[in-house]
Amino acid sequence: MPLNKLHVPENLPARTCRQINDLLHDSLVQTCAVNPDDYFCIVTRYAPEDMILHPTFLGERDVTATIIIEITLLSGRSDDQKEALYVDVRKRLEGIEFSSQNSIIYLTENGPIDWSFSEQGSVKKVLGL
Q1: Around Cβ 55, how many Cβ atoms within 10 Å?
Q2: pLDDT per residue over 64-106, tens digit each?
Q3: Strand order of the sheet with strand 3-9?
Q4: What are the distances in angstroms from CA 74 to CA 4, 48, 95, 106, 108?
Q5: Residue-wise over 59-94: b if at least 16 C-beta within 10 A, else e?
Q6: CA dihedral for 89, 5, 104, 10, sign (positive or negative)
Q7: The domain that contains 48 carries what CATH number?
Q8: Residues 58-75 pLDDT 10s
Q9: Closest among 125, 10, 128, 3 to 66, alpha carbons compared
């Protein structure tokens, strides 16, 4: 059950943000066996002066156009799955004519006890895990 957060420049169109999240979700389903119904995203926008990014750390990027893709999901994916996710997301970004060079992706993992969707309590409790 991932929660995607897209940190994007304030001038990036809402349509492009939706496309990015859609391709991210599709990639998570394909590479990391995420449930297709687990579709959650928050978009945060920043002014150019509010994002401080090194322009050449581990690759060249346009810091005024760079997005940060933050994915929080249940732990358990292999390193190979994560590497496949990174490759696939970047390929899909190029497919919507967004330079994958201008993207930073990172994952944060947690467990079923760390999620709650209702008054019933944690996902761990609700699913009896």
Answers
A1: 11
A2: 899 999 999 999 999 999 999 999 999 999 999 999 999 999 9
A3: 41-46, 3-9, 67-74, 103-110
A4: 12, 32, 28, 14, 8
A5: eebeeebbbbbbbbbbeebeeeebebbbebbbebbe
A6: positive
A7: 3.30.429.10
A8: 888 988 899 999 999 999
A9: 10
pLDDT tens-digit series, residues 6-62? 999 999 999 999 999 999 999 999 999 999 999 999 999 999 889 888 888 888 898
**Longest CA span, the chain:** 47
Q: How many domains does the chain have?
A: 1
Domain with 28, as residue range(s), is: 3-127
Q: Which residue has the tokens 């926008």?
A: 45
